[in-house]
Records
---
Amino acid sequence: MEYSVKKIVEEGEKILKKKGVLNSRSEASLIVQKTLNVSKIDILTNNIRSVSFLKRMSINKNFCERVRGKPISKIFGIKEFYSYEFFTNSNVLDPRPESETLVDVAKKILRKTKSTINILELGVGSGCIIISIIQELSELRIKGTGIDISESSLKVAKKNKKKFNILNLHLLRSNWFSNLKNKYDMIVSNPPYLKTSDIEFLDDEVKKYDPLVSLDGGKNGLNAYNEIAANVKKHLKLGGVICLEIGFGQRNYVNRIFEKEGFELILEEKDLQDIPRVVVYKLK
Ligand SMILES: C[S@@+](CC[C@H](N)C(=O)[O-])C[C@H]1O[C@@H](n2cnc3c(N)ncnc32)[C@H](O)[C@@H]1O
């Protein structure tokens, strides 16, 4: 027996809606799209007239996983970020739309440069930030370095490096600066910044499928900023900058931490929700 795509999406929408999944229509459509490996247009125009029994079973299995709380990105192992598709899994933080602000800021600053630029990303995760920067600024000569404390997230970053065929990106394990000797023109980071006590209140989608090490910023959420601020000086070239993503309401705290270490705020950027999201410092 064969099934029409339109009907499958409608049924999926009902199942997801009943279980409280927001945007049930678009999520159902996306699940069908990804399982069948077809485009959104194919679904919208009802271009795929029929789906085999086996494919239908796979789609149902994916609807069930979604209903059990697994995000679509983690079902299919892929997440879009800055219009690129990155590999992801439960060993890395899913790339977040608000982190695209960090890429925008890096582009804004680096566009003015000409010579070879050395960029370091601290806590590289899937690699989505540094890889997007390198992709977006392909006219520049960028030498990238990405570090992470988590070996399993470095595996995902390496897979993404290969996917985008990035040659000039060195990925290594390090506890912040512990294994680094070089100096950089730009350091970027989206460190873990949630308060430990807030983690139990996160949605299951985050709590169960994003690793704790990518979320937990310690008692006041600021552990990583303190650690980075205390050690970053010797890793910045003359005139070098550090660009950081920050959490909701952390702007003044992070400013104080960096000012105490002799840095000045030279730029800040809000995300699409109008929340201060990225701060940039250089040494006074
Ligand atoms: C919020 S996630 C950001 C991941 C990725 N850059 C992104 O924006 O999607 C923070 C990352 O920092 C890493 N991390 C946590 N503590 C670390 C440490 N002490 N040294 C290096 N990396 C660390 C985590 O493993 C995680 O990949």
Note: The beta strands are 78-81, 84-87, 117-122, 142-148, 169-173, 184-189, 236-245, 263-270, 276-283.
---
Amino acid sequence: MATFVTRAQWGARAPEGTNSNITPEQGGVVIHHIDAVKVARANHADCAAQVRGIQSYHMDSNGWADVAYSHLACVHGYLFQGRGEYVRTAAQGTTQGNDDWYAICALTGGTASAYDVISAQLIDAIRYGVNRLRVSGGAGPAITGHRDHHATECPGNLYSRVLKGEVNPGGGPLPYPGVNFRQSPPTVHASVATWQYRMNSAHGYSLTVDGQYGAGSDAACRSFQSGKGLSVDGVVGPATWATTFA
Ligand SMILES: [Zn+2]
Ligand SMILES: [Zn+2]
């Protein structure tokens, strides 16, 4: 069971303002990691100082009102309170991402040649945070990686865990995001990018991963539905989503 660390407990600075004008029921939670270098601390005693450093960087160097994220999770199984529930984040790199989605950042990093190890305790802390943002913050059911919103490698080696639904509070598979994808008018939603990536990586398609459900996505969906014995309507609803992520 993860342990929650309040802002007072980690020594947070007061925010320079908060914006509560958000619609998190239309999105959900975005998973991040920190950087293209390994950052996980060996000893948990060093994690609070790391979070304070991230907050100071975001406020003093980026000019943001507070640490960018809703919460931050460490490899030792602790969830550090960030901006919290019902506060707009600065983490996603798009206006819609910050309007509709909360952000949980893992205190891990690296590149394909050398990533921090994803511990079971980290997964547990992220699940705790997703549940908290749903129950206390009205987050929608969707879970995405940062790369589904914006051109970035983030969240690195956590992305495959996202696709498996491991960071969902109840475990996998990745939950249906609550939005049907259809071509007319084209659905624009970060979970479309998650689906496009999965269609390519697990089912052999070659879709552009752009979060927009256009003609190529519709055609791939119909082909996939036909091959899986689903009703062929070109719409990604709960059954097609579940089959894609099974
Ligand atoms: Zn990120
Ligand atoms: Zn820690």
Note: The pocket of zinc ion (ligand 1) is lined by residues 32, 146, 152, 154 (CB under 6 Å).
